[in-house]
Structure formats: C-alpha cells, structure tokens
Design goal:
The protein is mainly α. It is built from 5 helices and 2 strands, in the order ααβαβαα. Pfam families: MscL.
C-alpha cells in the first residue's frame, strides 16, 4: 500500500502540480500587490483611499487627494521578492532533488551490481566441482548397470 502511494507521489505530474500550486500562490501575491499598488491608485484618482509607502503620487494638490493617488511600489517590490524567494526555495529544495532521483531511476543507477548469467554460474559450479575432485579421492559408488550387484 505504501509502495503504491510512493509511486503515485513520485510521478512527475503530482510533483509538478504541487510545485505549480506553491508558485501559483506566490504569484497571487504579485498580482494582488500589482492591483492594490498600481491599479488601485489609478482608480483612486476619482475616489479616496489611504496608502503610503515607497512610490509617487499622481497629483500634488491636497494631502487627502495625494494619499488616494499614491502609487505604492514598495508592496509590489516586496511581492516580487517574495515570489522569487518562494520559487527558488521550491526549485532547489523540491524540484532538483526529485529530478535527480527520477533521473537515477531512469538510468538504473540504483539497480546495484549485475547478476551473473546462467553460463557464468554453470562455469563457476564446474570449476568448484573440478577443484573438489582434485582435493578428494574418488569414492566408490554403486553402479546400477553392473549385473554383479
């Protein structure tokens, strides 16, 4: 049961799907930061909202209007950095080791030493029997073809 589960997990599709979910979650942070930091201030030109951070204002009229039209680049930069860190960690901690394991399985490096062939085994048995025959004197055996017995 556990071997089947392990085989299921080691298929490339499941691992790739898990990586895609993690990277997709991190990418969602970039999209959210983009919309709240750049798109939202463009819309806020016509309305009012308060945001502060690294960026610039679209208008310098009043403080209330300045706050609502402020393009906050800091949260976008933070989201990009977050995405790059998550993607790098997932790649180096999960994807590369799993890929190396799958490559080893394909190459057969984990198979171990090759088993001897039938001919090699028979030659080894013959040599052992010949060595035994030289060491021990022959023992008398009953021959069933002998009519005297």
């Amino acid at each position: 049961m556990l071997k089947g589960f392990k085989d299921f997990l080691m298929r490339g599709n499941v691992v790739d799907l898990a990586v895609a979910v993690v990277i997709g979650t991190a990418f969602t942070a970039i999209v959210t930061a983009f919309t709240t930091s750049i798109i939202k201030p463009l819309i806020n030109i016509f309305g009012g909202a308060e945001t502060k951070g690294l960026g610039f204002s679209l208008r310098d009229d009043t403080q209330a209007l300045k706050d609502s039209t402020f393009i906050d680049l800091s949260s976008l930069i933070n989201a990009i950095i977050n995405f790059l860190i998550v993607a790098a960690v997932v790649y180096f901690v999960l994807v590369l080791p799993i890929k190396k394991i799958q490559d080893r399985r394909k190459k057969g490096e984990e198979a171990g030493p090759a088993e001897p062939t039938d001919v090699e085994l028979l030659i080894e048995i013959r040599d052992l029997l010949a060595a035994q025959a030289k060491q021990e004197p022959p023992t008398p055996t009953m021959d069933r073809r002998d009519p005297a017995i």
